[in-house]
Design brief:
heterodimer, A: alpha+beta, 4-stranded antiparallel sheet, elongated, B: mainly alpha, Histone, subunit A, two-stranded antiparallel sheet, 3 strands, TBP-associated factor 6 (chain B), RNA polymerase II general transcription initiation factor activity (chain B), Histone-fold (chain B), transcription (chain B)
Chain lengths: 801, 472
């Protein structure tokens, strides 16, 4: 950008519309104070509140730091009338006056912009003129916003390819603020026109937000609406490279700097200038630039997702210090203990003894008892100690031993899935073999005639039971082994029970392989089998959560409801057992997640911090942490015991609908309504990659036993397999050419669907395979301990609806 | 409904709720002087509230793992927003909106929709309607993928070739040298996937056979083209070539349909007669081909043959030829297959006898039946013409001294039964012996044919005695 301000005025001078309507400057040789007064008067009469404010602060700055702003024309003592005219023009279009020198060293722009306009005396001054100002504002022509946005969009589109992905994100907040401004000022018609005209290009990415905003039609709505208030009160963070900021500021001040030829004409006129001013007002008041040192070419096309948005409220404010971005917050929270949970020595010894016995009995030389390998510790991953775990009973039970033994057997018999082998296979024959090794076998359970809907479905770890929660408020249990599910009769005397034989006598007669559990009074949104038995024994308990705000514990011995946990005030979206049983976590519409223990009816911990519904909750495999996904488009990791947020994952552009931990405890996968699956590194809190390809909401995610493969089930009636270890990225043929690659990717995100060539563009290279089903949205995806993939979904009859 | 793609915000989304609606509501509440600004402000507010409810309902929809918003979602949303829910709307029978007839007196009213409120007569419902309980929820399991390959079972959708392409696009850049991979990867699935939609027509036909089939049928028909060489070549190929078994059902069906079409037209024209001839040739060729296993299709082959044979009105120029050919085919068919298909000849006999003896059949049919009997064999002729009284029936329908193909065919049949003597000795009416024969002749064959045989005593005796030998 070319700095010296007077030079700016060439367009302004050409027809100098602003000054011509202003009262003529009376005394050209007057001192500064008079000139300033005139300027102020002019600005006030034109309603340029911001400019006025900026001007005032510039005077302050000028008097305070003359040495610093030696070149600033406002600080010169004598001005000719012509110069004054120029200055006015400049001020009118450029309220961030004090920064103009600083703008040359762009790194300080942000701080300058941030500090500007805050001094108390200016606030007072504004307050004193506000009544007048408001009227002026109302008289403002609403078209300046249209004009401004049009120019801005033209400028962004006309900018160099390497900058375009960087500039694109600023369109959205400016659009939102313009719309909100228009609504708040009562220009409903203009707002609607503005919306219909310019929302198109933003729709593909920001559709949910745009849709929400489009519903706001009256000033009161803007005042009441939560999202609108967040836009108003928080700074929208935009990440930009230094040169990008330079260019933007240059354009804002001079109307130059990369716009397409011919598109800048509007700026020579009054209209264009006012439009630009409107843009600048938003930029100054509501945008915060997060300037990166890295050159724009090295920024990947999707990285803006992580650092753009109304971030300040999403990031928990710890101990008063405000942390600007997610990364710094995650760093400040220190290291996590992501290693596997310890096993008590007694249990380990007993398990080893049992394994040895089994090996002897099986006469299987391969099945060495020492196959009970202690989980290999991965360097850099800290394993928790006993004191870190949630309190558990000190002694172990038979079921624990059986579970551990079975775990070892499973580990030995597990089908190894190695997607990495696919990459190395050179010839087709090898590839076929590698494919068989890399990809899982998927067994699909299709539910028929589900009626109203089946919001959830789950398989027990030993694959003996399947439970499904229905919209009709009941849970149905199926035995997958064909065994009859029997409860107990209700007419027996407890005193008559002495031993297992007499207990067996009071079991129900008959029975079938399916069973209905009735107790909830609203749709059942989640079911979870207790994990204590592992894959050795069938589970004994089932948890379910429902729209009736309760979570219920069902005994699978008696087939009855045992406890109803009340505490949430709103529908409970998700429930999940802790990996060792006893504890469980719930996620609710009331914006909290809670930790419960089965023996208490009130919550042990409340995890509050999400700005919207908590949609899903999962335990870390070592049960130290809890991950939640929310409608505020973030996922968070909580310390279970302390109840504090330790990681925040920002990057989704839609509601986070489901999450999954990798069994090795190092990664978190989250899927959102933006149809993307993000893979996060828990340790650093950074996004590893973004996987796209689904064409409808993703309902469920599951990692394979080795954490090498991710399977997702979706409403687009497909199951997809993703390579966790692969680099991913969009398959642009110009990938090696950084500039073009970024461009195409940027377009995919910012332009309308019609601009895309096809859906396949969208699939990242780490998508290994897609298994379509017949009209069956996949609501649950699970891996058995031996790496067989089980999926479930209801068949949608095309005739109904 | 995939929300992300399908919905693009446009100005349709805003200002759906018109201020006129507000005014209508106001009027219904007896507020007539509602100002414009109030109405439009209220409309905006109503719209905002509706959006609020819908947005909330969308959450319930999402969590119910559905992609269609239902009334129950709205219900739940109202509940959590602490608004009294709307009663009477059930997702089980979603209301159907009907369009009202336009009001001619208010052209500006626009389209009016209303919910149809059906009147239910309890008496009728209680009497007539059986309330069926819905079949409860059930599940079945199938392999969606086995080691990464999707098996081609009915539970899985047919593989879409595009998917393979997509995978190819998705993969190849990241993996140099594996360009052949996706195609080698599931060749069976992709090729089978292409064929799946045609499954009903040609299940297992290879491309080559399909091609052969079309070539063959076009070479054989229509007969209008004078390309006889081609036709002959086709028939030769059909007669001798091996490996056509897979085509057999299609050929049989083709022939059957062809015959039906030709006969339906009444077979007045030459060309149709020719078509029939060709089709009979095709049947003959099929039967001649040793490599074909025809037996399962015999029941399908017989109708065309018999229809041709017994059809009442074949064009006179071709009638004899067609019937002869058909009877030859019949004879061929019987000699080949009657051993393995014991019920075959009785069935054919029954059909033929019925055609020969029963009343109201045309001469053509009778002639065909006789020729058919000739094709079946000596015994059949005897049974039909002599013992069954076929000759008598035919003779009675003929006027004395009449000649024609039917007479010829009967005489030919008699020839088969017993060869006419080279030096015919007429029966002597005076001889007691001979007059007995004559009486018998008249009795069994009727006047017409008795007269025809009178001139050859030996022949007549042969015809009669044969029958006498059989009759006891």
């Amino acid at each position: 950008m070319s700095v010296p301000t007077p030079a700016v005025s060439t367009p302004a001078e050409g027809d100098s519309p602003a000054p011509s309507t202003a009262p003529p400057p009376a005394d050209p040789s007057s001192n500064v104070a008079q000139g300033e007064r005139l300027v102020l008067e002019y600005l006030r009469s034109r309603g340029f509140k911001t400019a006025e404010q900026a001007f005032l602060s510039s005077i302050e700055a000028g008097t305070e730091g003359k040495d610093k702003e030696s070149a600033a024309p406002s600080s010169s003592n004598t001005v000719t009338s012509e110069e004054l005219v120029k200055n006015i023009a400049v001020f009118a279009s450029k309220p961030n006056k004090p920064a103009e020198n600083a703008l040359s060293e762009s790194s300080s722009v942000v701080s300058e912009l941030g500090t500007m306009g805050n001094p108390a005396n200016i606030q007072n001054l504004i307050a004193s003129i506000s009544s007048l100002g408001a009227e002026e504002v109302l008289r403002l022509d609403p078209t300046d916003k249209q004009e401004g946005f049009k120019e801005l969009e033209a400028w962004v589109d006309g900018s160099l390819d390497m900058y375009r992905p960087e500039f694109r994100p600023i369109l959205f907040p400016i659009f939102c603020h313009f719309y909100l401004d228009l609504i708040q000022q009562g220009f409903k018609e203009a707002a609607l026109r503005f919306f219909s005209e310019y929302s198109g290009s933003l729709a593909p990415v920001h559709n949910p937000t745009l849709h929400h905003l489009s519903a706001l039609l009256l000033p009161t709505h803007v005042e009441k609406d939560e999202l609108a208030q967040r836009f108003r009160n928080e700074k929208y963070t935009v990440r930009m490279s230094r040169s990008g900021v330079d260019l933007l500021v240059g354009w804002l001040t001079e109307g130059m700097g990369g716009e397409a030829p011919g598109s800048g004409e509007g700026f020579s006129g009054e209209k264009g200038k006012r439009g630009r001013l409107a843009v600048m007002r938003v930029v100054n008041n509501h945008l915060k630039f997060d300037v990166t040192a890295s050159p724009s070419t090295s920024v990947s096309a999707t990285s803006w997702e992580e650092s753009t948005g109304l971030l300040s409220s999403l990031i928990p404010q710890s101990s008063g210090s405000s942390v600007g971005d997610a990364h710094t917050f995650n760093l400040s929270k220190g290291e996590l203990k992501l290693g596997p949970a310890p096993i008590s020595e007694e249990l380990r010894a007993e398990t080893e003894r049992q394994l040895r016995e089994h090996a002897m009995m099986d006469r299987d030389p391969a099945a060495q008892y020492d196959a009970y390998i202690r989980p290999a510790t991965i360097p850099g991953v800290v394993s928790p100690t006993f004191s870190d775990l949630l309190p558990h009973p000190p002694s172990f039970r038979t079921v624990d031993v059986r579970r551990e033994v079975e775990k070892v057997r499973d580990a030995r018999k597990r089908i190894r899935l190695e997607p990495s082998a696919l990459a190395n296979a050179a010839n087709p024959g090898q590839a076929l073999a590698a494919r068989a090794r890399a990809l899982p076998s998927v067994c699909a359970y299709t539910l028929h005639d589900v009626g109203e809907g089946v919001p959830c479905c789950s398989f027990s770890q030993d694959s003996s039971l399947m439970a499904a929660g229905f919209a009709e408020s009941y849970i149905r249990l199926w035995s997958l082994k064909g065994e009859k599910l029997k409860g107990y009769r209700s007419d027996f005397q407890p005193s008559s029970i002495h031993n297992t034989a007499s207990l067996r006598k009071v079991r129900e007669k008959g029975g079938s392989t399916t069973r209905k559990l009735i107790g909830h009074s609203g749709p059942v949104y989640s079911v979870s089998f207790d994990p204590v038995g592992g894959s050795a024994t069938p589970p004994r308990y089932l948890l379910s959560s429902s729209a009736d705000a309760t979570t219920r514990l069902w005994s699978l011995d008696t087939m009855t409801n045992v406890v109803a946990y009340r505490g949430h005030q709103n529908p409970v979206w998700d429930v999940q057992w802790s990996p060792m049983g006893i504890y469980f976590a719930t996620a609710s519409r009331d914006r909290t997640a809670r930790l419960w223990s089965t023996d208490r009816t009130s919550a042990l911990r409340v995890y509050a911090g999400h700005l919207s519904d908590v949609d899903c909750v999962r335990f870390h495999p070592n049960s130290l942490y809890l991950a939640t996904g929310s409608s505020d488009r973030t996922a968070r990791l909580w310390d279970v015991q302390r109840g504090s947020c330790v990681r925040v994952f920002i990057g989704h552009q839609g509601v986070v609908s489901t999450i999954a931990f990798s069994p090795d405890g190092r990664y978190l996968a989250s899927a959102g309504e933006d149809l993307a699956i993000n893979l996060w590194d828990l340790g650093s809190g950074k996004r590893i990659k973004k996987m796209t390809g689904h064409t409808a909401s993703i309902y469920s995610l599951a990692f394979s036993g080795e954490s090498s493969l991710l399977v997702s089930g979706s409403a687009d009636w497909t199951v997809r397999c993703w390579d966790v270890k692969a680099a991913g990225g969009l398959p642009s043929k110009v990938k090696e050419n950084g500039v073009n690659g970024v461009t195409t990717n940027g377009d995919t995100h910012s332009e309308g669907p019609s601009h895309r060539e096809s859906e396949s563009n969208n699939e990242t290279t780490d998508l290994l395979s897609t298994f379509p089903t017949k009209r069956t949205p996949i609501i649950n995806v699970q891996f058995t301990p031996r790496n067989l993939c089980l999926v479930a979904g209801p068949y949608l009859n095309p005739e109904i609806r | 409904m995939s929300k992300q793609k399908a919905r693009t915000p446009s100005n349709q989304l805003t200002g759906i709720y018109k201020s006129e609606s507000i005014r209508d509501v106001a009027e219904s509440l007896n507020i007539t002087n509602l100002s414009d600004s109030v109405a439009s402000a209220l409309a905006s507010d109503v719209e905002y509230r509706i959006h609020q409810v819908v947005e909330e309902a969308a959450r319930f929809m999402r969590h119910a793992r559905r992609t269609t918003l239902t009334t129950s979602d709205i219900d739940q949303a109202l509940r959590v927003l602490n608004i009294e829910p709307l009663y009477g709307h059930f997702p089980h029978n979603p209301p159907t909106f009907r369009r009202a007839l336009p009001f001619p007196q208010f052209p500006t009213a626009g389209t009016v929709y209303f919910v149809e409120d059906e009147e239910i007569d309890f008496d009728r419902v209680l009497r007539e309607e059986k309330i069926t309980l819905p079949k409860g929820v059930s599940w079945n399991a199938h392999w969606l993928a086995v080691e990464g390959v999707q098996p081609l079972i009915p539970e899985n959708p047919p593989a879409i070739p595009k998917d393979v392409d997509v995978e190819m696009n998705g993969r190849s850049p990241g993996r140099p040298g594996s360009s052949t991979f996706p195609s080698a990867d599931r060749p069976s699935s992709s090729s089978a996937g292409k064929k799946q939609p045609q499954q009903l027509v040609k299940q297992v036909l290879s491309r080559e056979l399909q091609l052969y089939y079309t070539r063959l049928t076009t070479a054989l028909l229509p007969t209008g083209t004078p390309d006889d060489a081609k036709r002959v070549a086709a028939l030769v190929s059909l007669r001798n070539d091996a490996g056509l078994q897979a085509l057999l059902p299609y050929l049989v069906r083709w022939v059957g349909e062809g015959v039906v079409n030709a006969l339906k037209g009444g077979v007045q024209s030459e060309s149709e007669a020719k078509t029939l001839g060709v089709l009979l040739d095709v049947i003959g060729a099929i039967l001649d081909n040793n490599t074909l296993f025809v037996e399962p299709y015999l029941h399908q082959l017989l109708p065309p043959v018999l229809s041709t044979l017994l059809h009442s009105t074949l064009p006179p120029s071709h009638a004899a030829h067609l019937r002869t050919t058909a009877s030859q085919i019949l004879s061929h068919l019987l000699t080949q297959h009657s051993t393995t298909y014991p019920s075959l000849s009785p069935r054919i006999m029954k059909t033929l006898l019925l055609a020969l003896i029963s009343d109201g059949k045309s001469k053509g049919t009778r002639e065909g039946a006789i020729r058919g009997l000739m094709g079946v064999g000596k015994e059949a002729i005897r049974k039909g013409l002599v013992e069954g009284g076929g000759a008598k029936v035919v003779g009675n329908e003929l006027t004395m001294g009449e000649t024609g193909s039917i007479v010829d065919s009967v005489m030919a049949a008699f020839q088969v039964l017993h060869p006419a003597s080279s030096t015919p000795v007429p029966l002597d009416k005076n001889s007691q012996d001979d007059s007995d024969v004559v009486a018998q002749l008249r009795d069994t064959l009727g006047d017409f044919f008795a007269r025809k045989l009178l001139h050859d005593g030996a022949w007549a005796r042969g015809v009669i005695t044969g029958s006498q030998e059989e009759s006891p």
